[in-house]
Amino acid sequence: NKVINGAMQISQRNTQVTSITSGDYYVCDRWKLGYGTAGTWTLSQSTDTPNNFGNSLKFDCTTANGSLSAGSNLQLIQYFEGQDLQDVEKGTSSAKQISVSFYVKTNKTGTYIVELADHDNSFRHCSKSYTVSDTNWNRYTVTFPADTTGTLDNDNAKSFEIGFWLAAGSDFASGSLQTSWGTTNNANRAVGQVNLADNTSNEFFLTGVQLEVDHTG
Fold first, then answer.
1. Which DSSP symbol is given to 170?
2. What's this model's pTM, rounded to 2 decimal places?
């Protein structure tokens, strides 16, 4: 598993932050909020979890935005150093698939988007959807294809990211979902994403995040 603190156990800055209206690192270590005009939020380290986990990261909408602007976005992001992903063999003929698994609980059902992006090669990206059909804790797995274009630098700089989309304006959702690796097209990044910011009753919990390289091929 390449994800650090995917079980949301470490929260050295704060265990709760209220009145959030901008992007930054707030609660659980290594996890950054990407934000643009998408309501007001409380983020907290929660003990509401599926079996075998002690903590989750909770999103609580405190001011709704039911009519997103074109540039509205809400994401939870983790960055990776290129030296930690050399076994993906990205940009070679031996490139590997990547599987992302995680647990989600939310009262906002519908389609959600997970995105991978490559910062070393002009933000090449690929997105996959998953469907939340009930309000229970559920485990989801999405698999991303191998990318034979664009190697990752073997250093400690930011090379790669995973992003969990929670809201997306038309700038990010007006095209066709980019389910294969390709050059940057913002309109294709989060097509179909529900608006978690549309009601103050909305909550979203995440834990058990894993990003694993498929070495079986």
1. H
2. 0.97
